[in-house]
Amino acid sequence: MKAYRGIDNKIRMFRPDMNMARMKRTAKRAALPDFDAEEAIRCMADVIRLDQEWVPRSTTSSLYIRPTLIGTDPTLGVGDAHAAKFYVLTGPVGQYYATGFQPVSLLADSRYCRAFPGGVGSFKMGCNYAPTIWVGKEAVKRDCQQVLWLYGNNEEITEVGTMNIFVYWKNEQGENELITPPLSSGLILPGVTRDSLLELAKEWNEFKVTEKALTMPEIEKALKEKRLFEMFGAGTACVVSPVGKILYHNKATDVYEEWKIPTMKNNPNLMQRFYETIIDIQYGRTTFRDWMREI
């Protein structure tokens, strides 16, 4: 998560309660000792208050915060942890897109899998990240910046890189609709930014908002019928990341196909609106519910 120095010079964390609730669920799944979420937030606030000069005095930068929990039992055996260390890494970070949004190209290849039912894809664990690095390097070899993770024979879309994925289109019933894969599958990380975008969209009440499975054949059909307006990732680092192209491995022909995604051409642009709204909340230009916790 991140802390921001607002336009009033006050420092605030963005939705730390939701971050810590997810960390508690992850700790339980990893058989790590439980901890008090509110106490953890207070500890992080104390650290940030002590090192507040590291929080950039800029509305394009922030302080990145990475709370970590590891088992520390003095043993080489595999088993549940009875002792653990909770620590926090912080560091100032600049604007993700310094010169404006840069659409990314995605490698979509169902021969690679990020998560599976019964696994830990819905938890914030290091073991979900290490296996993806090699696939990311394969994507780079094909001039792609990220991987669009697929699952199953129907090539269900799950995530993009380390972000949640959103699609804005006109569905087959003629309704403008924002779609993101559901958490119920156990394949999706419950991202804080993901939840924030869904909450904002529901608050606006201007288009249909749906959490449901979405497959590559559905994406292809929508593109051919010119019903797909935008596709973008959502995460802490960049808030939103536009998709401009998918390099899709057609398993039937064993050929890579290039699909153009018109995200940046859509006007008015929903992704841009999400970004500006979230940024305004984070830097104190506006408020929304109790998302910001003052240090």
Describe this structure in words.
With 295 residues, the protein is of the alpha+beta class. The protein has two domains: 2-95, Aminotransferase class 4, branched-chain amino acid transferase, N-terminal domain (D-amino Acid Aminotransferase, Chain A, domain 1); 104-279, Alpha-Beta Barrel (D-amino Acid Aminotransferase, Chain A, domain 2), CATH 3.20.10.10. It is 25% helix and 31% strand. The protein has helices at residues 16-29, 37-50, 130-141, 192-204, 216-224, 270-282, and strands spanning 2-5, 11-14, 62-71, 84-93, 104-108, 146-151, 156-160, 163-170, 176-180, 208-211, 228-235, 239-250, 255-260, 292-294. The strands form two sheets. A six-stranded mixed β-barrel has the order 5-6-7-8-11-12, surrounded by four helices. A five-stranded antiparallel sheet has the order 4-3-1-2-14, with helices on one face. Strand 8 and strand 9 (176-180) form a beta hairpin. Helix 1 (16-29) packs across helix 2 (37-50). The longest helix has 14 residues, at 16-29. The model has no long low-confidence stretch (mean pLDDT 97).
